[in-house]
Amino acid sequence: FLFVSAVEVKIEVVIPEKERSKEEMSPNGKASPLVYKVNGTARHYHLEEHPIASNPYHNPKDVVEASVCHVKDLENGQMREVDLGCGKALLIKEGGEFYAMGHKCPHYGAPLVKGVLSKGRVRCPWHGACFNIGTGDIEDFPGLDSLPRFQVKIEKEKVYIRASKQALQTQRRTKMMAKCISLSNYNLSSTNVLIIGAGAAGLVCAETLRQEGFSDRIVMCTMDRHLPYDRPKLSKSMDSHPEQIALRPKEFFRTYDIEVLTEMQAAAVDIKNKTAVFKDGFKMEYNKLLIATGNTPKALSCKGKEVENVFNIRTPEDANRVVKLATSKNVVIVGASFLGMEVAAYLTERAHSVSLVELEEVPFKKFFGERVGRAVMKMFESHRVKFYMQTEVSELREQEGKLKEVVLKSGKVLRADVCVVGIGAVPATGFLKQSGINIDSKGFIVVNKMMQTNIPGVFAAGDAVTFPLALRNNKKVNVPHWQMAHMHGRIAALNMLAHGMEISTVPYLWTAMFGKSIRYAGHGEGFDDVVIQGDLDELKFVAFYTKSDEVVAVASMNYDPIVSKVAEVLAAGRAIRKRDVDAARFCLCRTGDMSWLTGKGS
């Protein structure tokens, strides 16, 4: 809620009317049983209901109000991080009005004041999440929570903010959600919405359904032992325990009646009878189905591939085990993929030696281009990583059943106590081959802009799909990014509810190595040139990927928030031409000025 008087500006957390009414109208039925898989048997535990927090202003002691600036201190289009004494807020001026909300991105805590303000939303400078400045709602991902919104008031030409102390401390807000009507009448082998896969796409789908007031049964099934977790951290923060990287605590699933069946592997889908069949013989009927099974890592096919201490990083247990085995030992990583490179970076300070084997000439050549790839390779070499390029593994040798050596086709023999394989993945869709659901020649599920398959009521999302990418003239693409999986899940949920919502988001990803990040937006597949601005040797650069005369993607290192800025331009449907990038070389590299992006292109 925002109001402006003739005199002063103040800020207060307010629950939007739409969300408040949702809470009031939510069914008050019994909490659902949360389902866990224990020793091969699905067990249902009835959990007591947890009340949802009510209006934060019921306790006056929780409220703080402070004068933060003069009305003339901010121009239109400007943001400022302001201190209220017990916490900070982000103050924004756009269209002559003031807005205030949380100042940190709920995803990983990025300072939003360093992000990009454009047409009523702020985009995070680190990973591209977007928040509506009027409501605080998350509009693009990654992350699950929205921002708290504070009340702004102007008195005597001063700007005041009124806020909940708790909201200032947490810097996040979970949108109000419906709850399920009593499940006591339901058949345990039947559900309204069945979600196969509990990654980002599956979880966001379930949450979005509840946010939109859906009050019927939702069941999620996963092969994992754990509730949904932050999968990118498996290679970026390898010693994290499952509870440390959980996307939501157990209590969340209890509160919002989202049932989860763990260690459940789908074996088939019967579209005629709307039934999913699982490997252990369990069957579940559905009304709407989301398939979000992700991918399966490729394994080595060489001699000795079954020896101990050879890993695909697929679970927190895998990552933890690798860290333990690698400490003060010799590590060989096969594949200079994002996973392979991140694992190499993480283990350098722990292992005695880290060697990386790759078929290409330089890492990331197809994705970032040769020049950026060589700069990254040089950074790794400065941290004692030894590369063996343009070769493959021919044999894994063991001693007493455990890995001892990795033999390369070049003839080189590497000492190895542990081996991590990161040579790509294939979509986990084998169980759909006889289903009638449209699968392409590579195994990807084909969906339209609403994440619908060719079968009514069946949707698919995440790494296992190809979908029309608006940015590339609706070309069918596979975009296996964490951010994109979130958006797929949201779009699928909205269309299960017949909202007619089409996907139009700009792909955004990041990789972290040695405390540095490369950020990337767009879809550069098939690029024919790379325009580099900045200094690759200093690892401070921007790379524009072009196809013909058009910029199709951008990557940067130590140049925030240019990738978020470009993402906003592309999201607005504006083209960036190669000539614009060339003409702006001086502005960007000498001064860091990105104003040339505004209004450019068509």
From TrEMBL:
<dbReference type="Pfam" id="PF14759">
    <property type="entry name" value="Reductase_C"/>
</dbReference>
<feature type="domain" description="Rieske">
    <location>
        <begin position="66"/>
        <end position="161"/>
    </location>
</feature>
<dbReference type="InterPro" id="IPR036922">
    <property type="entry name" value="Rieske_2Fe-2S_sf"/>
</dbReference>
<keyword id="KW-0411">Iron-sulfur</keyword>
<dbReference type="InterPro" id="IPR050446">
    <property type="entry name" value="FAD-oxidoreductase/Apoptosis"/>
</dbReference>
<keyword id="KW-0053">Apoptosis</keyword>
<dbReference type="GO" id="GO:0051537">
    <property type="term" value="F:2 iron, 2 sulfur cluster binding"/>
</dbReference>
<protein>
    <recommendedName>
        <fullName>Apoptosis-inducing factor 3</fullName>
    </recommendedName>
</protein>
<keyword id="KW-0249">Electron transport</keyword>
<dbReference type="InterPro" id="IPR016156">
    <property type="entry name" value="FAD/NAD-linked_Rdtase_dimer_sf"/>
</dbReference>
<dbReference type="Pfam" id="PF07992">
    <property type="entry name" value="Pyr_redox_2"/>
</dbReference>
<dbReference type="InterPro" id="IPR028202">
    <property type="entry name" value="Reductase_C"/>
</dbReference>
<dbReference type="GO" id="GO:0097194">
    <property type="term" value="P:execution phase of apoptosis"/>
</dbReference>
<dbReference type="GO" id="GO:0046872">
    <property type="term" value="F:metal ion binding"/>
</dbReference>
<comment type="function">
    <text>Induces apoptosis through a caspase dependent pathway. Reduces mitochondrial membrane potential.</text>
</comment>
<keyword id="KW-0001">2Fe-2S</keyword>
<keyword id="KW-0560">Oxidoreductase</keyword>
<keyword id="KW-0408">Iron</keyword>
<keyword id="KW-0285">Flavoprotein</keyword>
<keyword id="KW-0479">Metal-binding</keyword>
<dbReference type="InterPro" id="IPR017941">
    <property type="entry name" value="Rieske_2Fe-2S"/>
</dbReference>
<keyword id="KW-0274">FAD</keyword>
<dbReference type="InterPro" id="IPR036188">
    <property type="entry name" value="FAD/NAD-bd_sf"/>
</dbReference>
<dbReference type="GO" id="GO:0005739">
    <property type="term" value="C:mitochondrion"/>
</dbReference>
<dbReference type="InterPro" id="IPR023753">
    <property type="entry name" value="FAD/NAD-binding_dom"/>
</dbReference>
<dbReference type="GO" id="GO:0016651">
    <property type="term" value="F:oxidoreductase activity, acting on NAD(P)H"/>
</dbReference>
<dbReference type="Pfam" id="PF00355">
    <property type="entry name" value="Rieske"/>
</dbReference>
<keyword id="KW-0496">Mitochondrion</keyword>
<keyword id="KW-0813">Transport</keyword>
<comment type="similarity">
    <text>Belongs to the FAD-dependent oxidoreductase family.</text>
</comment>
